[in-house]
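From the methods appendix. Each design record in this collection lists the tokenized structure first, followed by the designed amino acid sequence. Records were kept in a plain field format so they could be parsed without special tools. The example shown here is representative of the layout used throughout.

RECORD:
FOLD TOKENS (203 positions):
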């Protein structure tokens, strides 16, 4: 503090963090705080002119999360946050976050960008995407699985082996503009809407 401006910089190193029921481990990365803003990840390293620039990193469901973000301390606070998840284990996510559901397996890749103003969710916006690879999603009924015999291959009861989902966020709604579930026998295409109140409307 120089009598006019407060400034703080440093590095986060947290072994385990719980947030809304989700566990993040090995949380590490740079931060910067002054009178006007909070910066994390590459934004913090840019403010202190550090090279190479680093992102905030952590582990989640066996995968790696990379993130950056900022908050501006103005009368109506503004914020922006970006994150990506790579190599997460769908089976582990299902076991820890969706108890009682059918076992699933596969690898998750995801990205999201959020931005907004103030504390109301009505001003929240952003975009994101989710990809599942090498997946085992849902078991087909016997009659549908027999269709795979037409391909002269050993029948497999796995319905879908990959999925691509893209979405955008406006206020308290997530609009899914693309849902692709691709399988050996059948594929599903769709779109729809999911509210933060957990109401789902999909076609």
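DESIGN:
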């Amino acid at each position: 503090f120089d009598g006019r401006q407060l400034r703080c910089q440093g590095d986060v190193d947290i072994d385990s963090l719980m947030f809304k029921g989700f566990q993040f481990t090995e949380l590490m990365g740079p931060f910067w705080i002054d009178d006007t803003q909070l910066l994390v990840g590459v934004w913090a390293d840019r403010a202190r002119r550090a090279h190479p620039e680093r992102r905030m990193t952590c582990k989640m469901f066996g995968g790696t999360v990379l993130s950056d973000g900022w908050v501006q301390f103005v009368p109506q606070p503004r914020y922006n946050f970006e994150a990506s998840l790579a190599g997460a284990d769908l089976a582990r996510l299902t076991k820890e976050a969706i108890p009682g559901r059918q076992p699933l397996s596969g690898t998750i890749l995801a990205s999201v960008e959020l931005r907004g103003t103030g504390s109301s969710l009505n001003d929240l916006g952003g975009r994101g995407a989710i990809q599942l690879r090498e997946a085992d999603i849902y078991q087909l009924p016997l009659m549908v699985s027999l269709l795979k015999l037409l391909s002269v291959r050993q029948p497999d009861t796995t319905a879908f082996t990959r999925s691509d989902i893209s979405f955008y966020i406006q206020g308290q709604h997530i609009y899914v503009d693309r849902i692709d579930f691709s399988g050996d026998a059948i594929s599903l295409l769709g779109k729809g809407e999911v509210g933060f109140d957990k109401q789902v409307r999909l076609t």
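APPENDIX NOTE: The first strand starts at residue 7 and ends at 19.
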